[in-house]
Prior knowledge:
Shape: rod-shaped
Distance between the termini: 70 Å
Order of helices and strands: H
Amino acid sequence: xxxxxxxxxxxxxxxxxxLLIMAIVMGGTYLSQQQKSVAQKVSEASISH
Length: 49
């Protein structure tokens, strides 16, 4: 392998790792938002009763 092919492989690996990290962050943000929404609905329901 020459240097260009090695750097191409390294960039590809780095981009896949970056995408995985971003997917985890976005998934965590989505789940957190869903949890806040459910907690707010439960809170509103308990106040009204």
